[in-house]
Design brief:
Length: about 270
Amino acid sequence: MNDTTVFELSGVSYSYQNRIVALRDVDLTIRAGEALVILGPNGSGKSTLLKILDGLYRPTSGRVLAFGRDITRAADDPELGYWLHQRVGLVFQEPDVQLFSPTVFDDVAFGPLQLGWPSERIRQAVFTTLDELGILHLSDRAPFELSGGEKKRVALATVLVMDPEVILLDEPTANLDPRSRVQLIELLTELHRRGRTLIIATHELDLVATLATRVVVFGEHEHRPIAEGPPELILTDRTLLLAANLIHEHLHRHGPIVHSHPHWHDAEHQHEHD
C-alpha cells in the first residue's frame, strides 16, 4: 500500500445549525491505496464526514488536510475547492442529487465543463468513461428514464470522468436490486485494483467483507470512531457490532431453553451467526 497520506483529520467536529451534533472530535488518517469502509448506523456522522472530505462542509472546529494541504476552509474558498475537486470526487447516496441534466452525456460532461476542459477533451473523456462502465448506450437517455442501477453507474461516471485519485461513496449499494448490487461491487473492486483510493460510508456489513482493506467504526451516539482495524477483526467482534447498533439480538426459545443470536441486514438477506 502507498504510504502517502491522503487525508488527515485532527479534532474535527461538525454541528448542524450549531446545535445538532454530527461529528465530535474526529481524528483520522487515510492513506493512498486504501479501500476504507466507514462503518456505522444511520445518524452516526458518516455522510457528514464524506462531505467534509469533499470540501462541501466546513468543520465547526478542527483541521482537515488533503494531500498535505489544509482544506478546512475549502467550502468557502472556490480556488481551494477547485484544486480539491480535481483530485477527490464524491458519489452521493441518492444519484438524483447528481443527475439533473437533460441527458446522461450532459450530466457526465458537467464536471469537466466546470473545470474548463476544452470541448474535444470533454467529449472523448465522457464517451471513454461511459464505455468503461458499460453504459455508453445510455448517453442520449434522460436520467429519469433510468433504473436504479443505471443511475448509480451514471452518478459514478460523473465522478470518474475527472479521473480523481480518491473516490468517496455514500451508501453505494443502497436500494439496488441484487444483480445491480453485485455489478457495482465488482466495479468498485476493479477501481481499487487499478490504484484508486476508495472511502466508503455504509452500515452494510457485507460490504466490509467484499471491499474493505481497513474499517473504521463510528458510534451511533459518539459521532466519532470507536474502533478500527482489518475487516476480519471488526466482523468477528460481536460486542463491538452490538454496541454500534450494526447487529441486533433476537431471543429464541426451544422448549425450556432460551438463547440469543445476533442478526444483521444487508440489501438482499438477513444474516444470522451463532
